[in-house]
Amino acid sequence: MTTLLHAPETKSAGLDPAQDDLRYSFESYRLANDERLAEIESRGSADPLLDEKVARIDASLDETRRRIDRVALDRARPALGQDGLRDPLSHEHKAAFVSYIRSGEAGGLKRLEAKALSAGSGPDGGYLAPSTIEAEILRRLATISPIRAIATVRTISSGSYKKAFSTTGPASGWVAEAAARPQSNSPTLAELSFPAMELYAMPAATQTLLDDAIVNIDQWIAEEVEAAFAEQEGAAFVSGDGIDKPKGFLAYPTVADASWSWGNIGVLNSGVAGAFAASNPSDILVDLVYALKAGYRQNAAFVMNRKTQAVIRKFKDANGNYLWQPPASAGAPATLLGFPLVEAEDMPNIANNAVSVAFGDFRRGYLVVDRAGVRILRDPYSAKPYVLFYTTKHVGGGVQDFAAIKGLKFAV
Predict the structure, then answer these.
(1) Which of 24, 54, 102, 307 has the smallest CB count inside 10 Å?
(2) CATH of 129-166+189-412 given 3.40.395, 3.90.1690, 3.40.462, 1.10.3210
(3) How far apart are CA 6 and CA 14, in angstroms?
(4) SS in 3 state form for 208-232?
(5) Higher pLDDT residue, 87 or 343?
């Protein structure tokens, strides 16, 4: 009987140990199974001990493969909690940060930030929160901040994000294969700049809560700051003036869509000051949809507040069907004329000259810029007996494609 092939004492250099085990297990399985098949062919049956050996090696193969799959899954899983802190430095950062939050002991964080040569740390700027907390805050903001949820979001490491664009469109044309290539005009380029401004929140906690070891610090901080951050972001992304805050899409100049040009938001008038038309009021919504080019309509959405939505919800088509439809499933948005409807409370109410409805592809039209890093400063003195946590992140935003967003103005 052929002996089972054993893995050598020294594994092959450069191979993952689990992968190495899998290779040798399979080789053992191949030899044992070949022997079993040879016995069946020559004698009509295999030795029961050999059958048992093959089954045992087969089970070992399955277990090794499952172990490899688990390792691959762990490596691919985002580090959103304590279990994801595989990197020793990240684990050290998390432990030092939790010690700082609970007791105010900052020695560990000072050493880590000194190693990283980071600037602005310490008593003046607070300490950098672990990536788990930043990821949890951003995840929650993406869920409850309406414009962030539909816009393009980019993470940067500097203070601003700059994007070049051509004001005259690309220089291109058709030409025959053997024809001379005419010299094209040089493109006229301009630059859009999106600075990241400081956004802060200041949640408070009792020392009793901080002393409770079962309290998840990541989750608590994210829960405390999410509403404050989302409220400030929501207002800025809609109507922020760009001074120490993002610039909202309604803060840009508006022009009649028939005379639209780059740098402006094209709008259609409702035909009545501060109201929809008395007859066929929904016609202007159809016009708004088709004011947007086809390439943008594919991923477009309506944006309005709940009071405007309450007015539009009553509109019907010629067949008596409501234009507004409830969400088709849990977590899905309501629809208007077949397009998603995003409720943003910071959109203006219906009033004279107000742009109360926006429609467009906000993924292409609006850019949100997040500067990497969330800083937290512990303040146990300003509001005794409570401990304040001055939490800051840097956010910017602005329109990046003025052709992708249209507005409905309630004016003659």
Answers:
(1) 307
(2) 3.90.1690
(3) 20
(4) HHHHCCCCCHHHHHHHHHHHHHHHH
(5) 343
